[in-house]
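dumping this here before i forget
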Amino acid sequence: MTLAPYASDPARTRGRRHPEPATPHRSAFQRDRDRIVHSTAFRRLVYKTQVFLNHEGDLFRTRLTHSIEVAQLGRSIARPLGLCEDLVEAIALAHDLGHTPFGHAGQDALNECMADHGGFEHNLQSLRVVDKLEERYPRYDGLNLCFETREGILKHCSRANAERLEAGEPGGVGRRFLDRTQPGLEAQLCNLADEIAYNAHDIDDGVRSGLLTLEQLEAVDLFEHFRQSALRAHPQLAGRRLLYESIRLMLSAQVHDVIDSTAQALQEARVASAEDVRRAATLVGFSEPMRQRSAALKQFLLHQLYRHPQVQDMTGRARRVVRDLFGVYVQSPSEMPEAYARADDLPRAVADYIAGMTDRFALREHERLTGQRVLAG
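structure:
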């Protein structure tokens, strides 16, 4: 496929931190994708949760299935825009590698524990995983990914952490947070595909769990519009088939909206190269009507699902697990593997160890160390 002039071209990558010769049959971004898929951190995503914890059911989304859905949506949008699908896929598959067990509850708890030690940001942790924590190659730590892939993984970053990154890698992936410039279009696209994916699958998981109903969702304009479309085409449709068809139509409409809106933004900004993209405003996005409808859906999910008493109860227990583990490991480092126990920066090593855990391993460790069974593992 011929790339658009404003796409990230693997033949013109800014390269890897440790230079490597090119290979004859795979581009630089294809190699990045393959390294991510074969990483230990990627395999762990199958037992890390989104909203519902691992023990609550086998059919709820995990970080792994979410990442695959983001990659699928991203590629569907990238192709008609002439963007680099391989880079989109690599970023999408790696963007959650640094997420803790127990979803955002685990992240928030670990950030609290690390408040006096630089905090914890899951995007920064994902970068740390691919830059340092993976141990697969003889000449360097991490996966030695291309700049463009690493840039896409680090979609958010505090100024303090950006300054630390810049000090260690001048002009590197932290620089744009200081310059207020944009990442490549593929990175922008993955950021939006992430949002589209979790809004859709949280509707599905919310209804599956019984915490949301189709009747409640009638109040959400974006969903209700496509539920009505599904019923007009299939008047007898009901239950899960109606839910799935409504979500399918909603996803398709959002994908087409992003493609059309982004194409228009690119034309109006008159970008002619990947460097032009960096100096422009954010170019990948919804049309304003779709943005408003998507924002309303996010607000609905926040109040009706993420803050549901049952979800809050589970996430409260999950936070306790993370806090307890952190306290034990700081006081008794020998309870961790030797490489973590002997690290110079013990709090950061503890955070690395906990962030790498799956839900069920964290629960087993908590029960082993405290004698308490907080959640069924």
